[in-house]
Structures are given as C-alpha cells and as structure tokens.
Specification:
The structure holds 2 protein chains of 2 kinds. Helices cover 26% and strands 15% of the residues of chain A. Chain A is an alpha/beta fold. Chain A has a domain at 1-47 and 72-78 and 100-156 and 201-338 and 528-595: FAD/NAD(P)-binding domain. In chain A, the strands form 5 sheets. In chain A, strands 1, 2, 7, 8, 9, 10 and 18 form a 7-stranded mixed sheet that branches. Chain A has a 4-stranded antiparallel sheet with strand order 13-14-11-17, covered by helices on one side. In chain A, strands 4-16-15 form a 3-stranded mixed sheet, with helices on one face. Chain A is globular, with a radius of gyration of 24 Å. Chain B has 2 domains: 1-62, no CATH class; 72-194, no CATH class. Chain B is 57% helix and 0% strand. Chain B has helices spanning 5-27, 30-43, 72-85, 100-108, 113-137, 146-156, 167-185, 188-194, 210-215. Chain B is globular and about 60 Å long. The termini of chain B are far apart. The chains are: A alpha/beta, B mainly alpha. The interface between A and B is large, with 104 and 94 residues.
Chain lengths: 595, 223
C-alpha cells in the first residue's frame, strides 16, 4: 500500500456511535477513510451469545469487575476499569470512567434508548439562565434526527408532548405492544398520578426496514450509498422478541455500529479499519493544521503515524479530550484546539436514581412470554416542564422514567433475598414462593439532565501517570449541584408514589438526601462534554459542525461536543450531530477547503 | 457427589448446541452474512476473536478458568443442604441433582473479593453445621434423619428472627440459599418450574393474553 501523505482523506479515531456514523457518511460520499480503533476487531454475527442460558456461563453470568454487566454482555475489554489503563480522581470525587475497547465501542451493548433532544434542550440557558445554549437550534438538527432514525431503525410513536419531538411521518417503526407490568404502570400513573406513560423509542427493528424506499430517500443522487444501504437493510432481520439486546444481536435487529454502520461503510471500498490502534496524539504542521495521528499498534507495542487531510476524533468524550490535551507542541502548548483552555471542561453525566418494588397484583401471573424487545416498551418522558417554569420545583431540569420488570429470563440474582423476604422460606415452600413472586418485582430508573459546571472536568494527571502504552492518563474532578441532587431525590419520591399507587411495596431505601440517592458520576455511562460547541472561540472548543475553532481540519464528533446533557440518552443525538458534521465535511471537501 | 468440571462443561455444551440448533436455521440471514464477511476481510486488519482473558472471554464456549477448591467433605454437606433448600417436588428436581453444590464450589473458588468473603461464610458455616449436628444428634449432617436436619435448618432459616447464638448460622444459611436459588433457577429445570417460556424466536409480538390482563386487574373478569 502506498505510504504517501495523502493515502487517506480522513482519519476517524473511534468506531462507535460517532466514529461509525462519520466513517459511514464519508465513505458513501467517496471519501477515503482510515478508522483507528483502540480495541480489537469484533464481529457480532459470530461472537454474540444469543440464546445461552446463565447456567452456561461462569458464576451464572453474574457481574464481575472484568464483565460489569455480566458474562454475556457484549462488552469486550471494557468497563469502569480496564487493565493497564488507569485514571485517577481525588478521594471524594469517585468518577467512574467507562471504556469499551472493541470495534463498535459501547454501541455493542448500549440500552438502545433513542430519544431526541427537543427545542428546550438546545437552548437551555435562554430558558432558565443555567448552563449554555447550543450554537444551533433543534430545527437545524431535526432533518438528521429523521435520517438517523430511518437509517438505524427506531421503534416508537409520536405523541406531540412538550419538548418530546415527533419524528416525521413514516420514520418510526411500530412500537411493540406493552407488557403487563408496563400496562399496570401506565394505568396507575394515568388514574392516580397524572404522569404520562407512552411508547418508548428504542433502536430495534420491530419490523424489517423498507429497503426499497429508504436508500433513495436518505441518499438521493448517490447510487453508491443507495446500493450499500439497500444491502445493509436487507441483511438485517426484524426483532424476534427473544434474547437480551445487551449481548449484541447476531441477526442485526438492533443498532450496533458493527452491524449497521461499519458493514455498509466497508462495502463502499472507501474504508480501511485498523484495530488495536490506540491513538495518543494528533500531529500538526507548522501552519497549525492537523496532519494525522500517532498511535500505538497494540499488537507489537510500536508507535506509528497515520496521515490524512483531516482528523475526526470520535473516541468517546473523555478519550477525545485526553487525545487533544496530550497533543502538545510549541504552537499548541495546552493541546490541540485548546486555546480556550476549555478542553476537558464541562463534563456531564446523567443523573441516575432507582427504586425497586414488589407488586402483589403481578404475583402468580399465568405463564406467558414477556421477553418482548428486551428493553422497555413504555417509558415516561419528563412531564413537569410547566411546574418548573412556574418555580414549583427545587431543580431546573427534567428526567425521564425507565421501567423494568416482568417474567424475564431469571438471571443470577433473580431470587436473591427471597428466603429472608418470606420469613425464612426453604424447602418446598421456597419453590412455591419463587413461583408466586416471579415476575412481580418492578423497578423504575430516573435518567435526568445534569447542568454543566466549572467543577466537573478532566485534565492530564498532574502526577505524570501514564498507562501501559506510556500515554499520560486522566484525572477527574466532579461536583454535583443542588439541581442534580434535588432531582435525584424527586425521582425516588416519584417512584415510591408509583409503586404505592400500584398497591406495591417499596423494596429500596428512599433517601431524604439526594446525595445518597444519586448514582456515582460516570455510572450511567452518558458522559459528554469536554470539547463543547459554541459560537465564541474563547469559551468553546468546536463550532456547530464539530469543527475546531483553531484547527479547521480537526473535528470532535462524539459526545465531547455536547453543550448540555438533556435527559434524552445521548447516543441518538451523537449520531445525528456526527452525520450533520460529516455532511458539512463532504460539502467543504467538494469546495476544496481541505486539499 | 461429583466435583469433576468436565461433566459440568459437557452439560453446558449440550445445552448450547440445543439452543443454537433451535434458533439457527429459520432466522439467521445466512447468505447475507457470507457476503458481509467477504467485505470485512477486505477492509479489516488484525482480525481475531476472543483473547480468552477475563475481560475478553470466549462467550460462545464459556469455561470456568479457576480451580475449584472445596473438599469432597464440604461438597457432600452442601449437596445435602442444597436439597434441603430446594428439594424435588412434582414440578422439578432438587437443587443438588442439578449440581447446585458444584456451582457453589465454582462461586466460592472465584478470584473476586465478594466470592472470597462468601468462601469464608460457607466454609465456616459448614464447620459450624458439622459441630451442631454432632452436638445435637451425634452424627454428621449428611447422615441425619430428615426431621433432624429440619430442626437445625428451622433454627437458622431467617436471620431477623433467629436466636442470638444462631445469627451467624442464619447468615450462612441465607447465603447458601441465595446461591442455591441462583444455581437452580438459571437452569432449564428451574426456568420450567417457574413457567418461564421465553428465549424462543417469535415471528410476531402479541399483547398479553386476556387472562393475564384480568389477573392484573386491567380489564374486568368474565361474567
């Protein structure tokens, strides 16, 4: 292969939601792309344990430090701790940094929850004076939400609720019928609590995509794109309503970068992928333009360089910020694109709190299949915008409610505590109690918006620590504001009210102090920020197209560019924004900007 | 009483083949997969599967990579205890008969902090159980009559209401009960007992049956 400077047009660092989408969009437009992935190659078609029972796994598939979501979880070489790749924080900070070192990154195991950010979410500061506004409006991104949903396949419904955007007609796939615990939640919330419960939006094919319609709609006048998308859509089966999505999906019924974006990108012939390529630094020339990246070839431990006309960082929010801060030179003493000093700043995660309960109405349920689409069929979008606007709540932003329950495949801990809960049942009575209680447990999880603040950031560890590859590591700082803590308390109280309204018994501790209810920072794995967008180069890192203010051929397309972290899980917005960014890059390339 | 891992692995393998065979032919897009693989080989470098490390185990052919450590004597007692906790009835076999005691060996032998703590709980508890059997009935636990075993278990089956001298025994019993339930209800036998009827491919997803909606009070009962 020729080793000329112009071997590739674009280097994409990372292969998940942002990297996969960027590489795919560029490749279908004839751009020659090199994708670098720090983890190993991974093929969901051959590697996914679809129907395996927990009894086939070590420890019945229970969580371990190396497999935090259980043995069969799709994550390879990932988790909050990765061997040889440490990070630090002060003792009281406890930030947990999730990595997935594998092709496709965390899209292989994610929850598939695909909620659009709305009008309010792009202009939060204009609305309540907190945080920052995005440099664009919801309307600016809306076409890419439609396109992303149509491309990846999202089920759900349009309900016309406040700041919960509808998709364009025909975009969403039909929502699967709710299960009994979801129907009971919906009825109870409607009758007793005035809380809406509506079809969830998940990136799962509830039926096959229309491969004759969408390719031309998504990519008019682009025969190559239409061909590879048509092939990709035809290869994806509809969900067969069995097997947990978190293991990945060998029939490609849910969205993973490795089943939906990377195969058609490869089919264009315009994408090369190097796995086990751990990028440590963006290189620049005397003019201050990006020239490529240094990476460690993990198979031999050697440092290598790859060149391109343009570099897109999509390594995940904190990793992209780390690469930027580690790319120091005379021109960029604080790292590339960091003249503002804002790289690493304004990290956000999602506010998380949980309450479990036991519902007598669900006991001794007649056996029937409740697997469904693995994830939830119904959810509750934030419903108290008006109360917040009137100052009735002691926190500024919203949360949505996720629900879990039903007679799912029993996992390792399905009946933990049953003996003590039943006054000491053992013997034949324990078996009767198990039959009675199976499927009667329910759980509600709040996922709420965190407002960016000056105290939440990462920096290159001042101690000089390096990882096993010799790359300087990150140190995290974190402090919740009262908005997050009060919101977490509100979540728990709401869920308690829901369980009690269903005639149930709360099985979790309801905390008076939100600080005890809130999940540790990083635990929800929605970390965004660290290279935020903005119009002002002194106060932000990239523009609305994810383009560095200082280095026009450097882009940060992943969650690092997020200005706020609405309660809407970030993956869908990451992909929509990355697609929009790549369309901009293609447009600029056609004008000769980066040559 | 068997502690030989090969037997356990063989059982797992059989289950896996059954599951794969049941699912494979009808729904996997075989030809399309072939086409995709060619495309990938062209574009990718460094292709390899699982490394076989703890953070990248072979998920399709799982193995327990650590040594099992419980003695035959402890395993024998555990098997008896597992059968006390989950005995055979008209719905399903006993926990011991599906190897729950071997699973507890796997659990307490694992190289993780929580399991190491459980190892202490289990081995100390078994020693206590042996002494208690000897004290009360001058026999080993495994040799006790059913009502003799029950009289001991009744004293330690509930942490909150157990006598002060039995609290530790009750904590031990509760842990073994949780692990026995974990072992049992994650097997085909345990799932069948519960009436779990999922993990099978469906061509269509349907709303809950009428009797289910009635059971939950979502619609009125039939007249």
């Amino acid at each position: 292969m020729p080793k000329s400077q112009a071997e590739y047009d674009v280097i994409v660092v990372g292969s998940g939601a942002a990297g996969g989408m960027s590489a795919f969009i560029l490749a279908v437009h004839g751009v020659r792309v090199l994708m670098l992935e720090a983890g190993r190659d991974y093929d969901p078609v051959t590697e996914t344990p679809m129907f395996q029972l927990p009894s086939e796994a070590p420890l019945r598939g229970a969580s371990t430090p190396e497999k935090p979501f259980g043995f069969f979880d799709a994550t390879v070489d990932g988790g909050w701790q990765v061997p040889g790749e440490p990070y630090s924080s002060d003792q009281d900070v406890n930030f947990k940094w999730w990595r997935s070192r594998m092709l496709g990154g965390r899209t292989n195991h994610w929850g598939r929850i695909s909620l659009r950010m709305g009008h309010y979410d792009y202009k939060p500061r204009s609305r309540d004076g907190l945080g920052f506004d995005w440099p664009m409006n919801y309307e600016d991104v809306e076409p890419w939400y439609d396109k992303t949903e149509a491309l990846i396949g999202v089920y759900g419904s349009n309900e016309g609720l406040e700041n919960t955007p509808d998709s364009s007609p025909g975009v969403l796939l039909p929502a699967p019928a709710p299960r009994v615990h979801e129907l009971l939640t919906q009825k109870t919330c409607a009758e007793n609590l005035d809380i809406p419960v509506i079809p969830a939006h998940l990136a799962i094919l509830s039926r096959k995509q229309d491969a004759d319609h969408w390719p031309a709609r998504l990519f008019p006048n682009n025969p190559l794109a239409q061909k590879v998308v048509r092939q990709s859509m035809r290869e994806r089966a509809a969900c067969f309503f069995a097997t947990p999505c978190g293991r990945g999906c060998s029939i490609k019924a849910n969205f993973q970068s490795t089943t939906v974006l990377i195969p058609p990108a490869l089919a264009t012939g315009n994408l090369d992928i190097r796995t086990d390529a751990m990028v440590r630094e963006v290189t620049t020339d005397a003019r201050g333009r990006a020239t490529g990246v240094h990476y460690i070839d993990k198979q031999c431990g050697e440092d290598r360089h790859a060149s391109a006309k343009l570099v897109i960082l999509a390594a995940s929010a904190c990793e992209s910020a780390r690469i930027m801060m580690n790319s120091r030179s005379t021109l960029f003493p604080h790292g590339v694109g960091n003249g503002s000093g804002k790289v690493g700043k304004y990290l956000m995660d999602t506010v998380g709190a949980w309450v479990g309960g036991q519902i007598p109405a669900l006991e001794n349920m007649p056996p029937h299949n409740q697997d469904g689409a693995s994830g939830m069929h119904l959810y509750t979008p934030w419903w108290l915008y008006q109360q917040q606007a009137r100052g009735k709540l002691d926190f500024a932003r919203g949360y949505h409610i996720e629900m879990y329950g039903g007679r799912r495949m029993p996992g390792a801990w399905a009946f933990a505590g049953l003996g003590n809960d039943t006054g000491g049942a053992y013997g034949k009575r324990l078996k009767r109690e198990a039959r009675r209680y199976y499927g009667s447990y329910i759980g509600y999880a709040g996922r709420g918006e965190m407002i960016p603040n000056e105290d939440c950031y990462c920096e290159i560890d001042p101690s000089g620590a390096v990882d096993r590859w010799g790359i300087p590591t990150l140190k995290f700082q974190w402090k919740w504001s009262k908005h997050e803590l009060n919101q977490a308390r509100h979540m728990q109280h709401t869920f308690r009210d829901m369980i009690e309204a269903m005639g149930g018994r709360v099985t979790s501790t309801i905390h008076k102090d939100g600080a005890d209810a809130i999940a540790a920072p990083g635990e929800i794995i929605h970390e965004v920020g660290g290279a935020i967008m903005g119009k002002d180069p002194d106060r932000s890192v990239v523009n609305q197209y994810c383009q560095s203010h200082e280095i026009p051929n450097l882009f940060v397309a992943d969650g690092a560019c997020f200005v706020s972290n609405a309660d809407k899980n970030p993956t869908l917005s990451i992909m929509a924004i990355a697609w929009r960014s790549s369309d901009y890059i293609v447009d600029q390339m056609q004008k000769g900007t980066f040559s | 009483m068997s502690r030989n891992k090969p037997v356990k692995i063989a059982r797992r393998t059989v289950i896996k083949f059954i599951a794969a065979a049941a699912a494979a032919p009808a729904l996997w897009p075989g030809l399309a997969v072939q086409a995709r693989k060619v495309a990938i080989e062209k574009g990718r470098k460094n292709h390899k599967g699982p490394a076989g490390t703890p953070s990248d185990p072979d998920l399709i052919n799982p193995v327990v990579p650590w040594e099992l450590t419980l003695s035959d004597e402890h395993l024998g007692m555990l098997e008896t205890l597992c059968d006390m906790i989950i005995p055979a009835d008209e719905h399903s076999p006993s926990a011991g008969s599906i190897g729950a005691h071997d699973f507890i060996d796997e659990w307490v032998s694992a190289p993780y902090d929580g399991m190491k703590r459980d190892r202490v709980t289990v081995t100390e508890g078994l020693s206590w159980l042996e002494k208690e059997s000897d004290k009360r009935f001058s026999a080993t636990f495994a040799d006790l009559e059913e009502e003799q075993k029950t009289s001991i278990c009744d004293d330690i089956c509930h942490v909150a209401s157990s006598a002060p001298e039995h609290v530790r025994g009750a904590q031990f019993f509760d842990r073994v009960r949780d692990l026995t339930a974990m072992a049992f209800y994650t097997t085909p036998e345990g799932m069948k007992d519960l009436g779990y009827i999922g993990n099978v491919p469906l061509t269509k997803w349907l709303p809950p049956p009428r009797e289910v909606l009635q059971h939950a009070g979502l619609i009125p009962d039939d007249e």
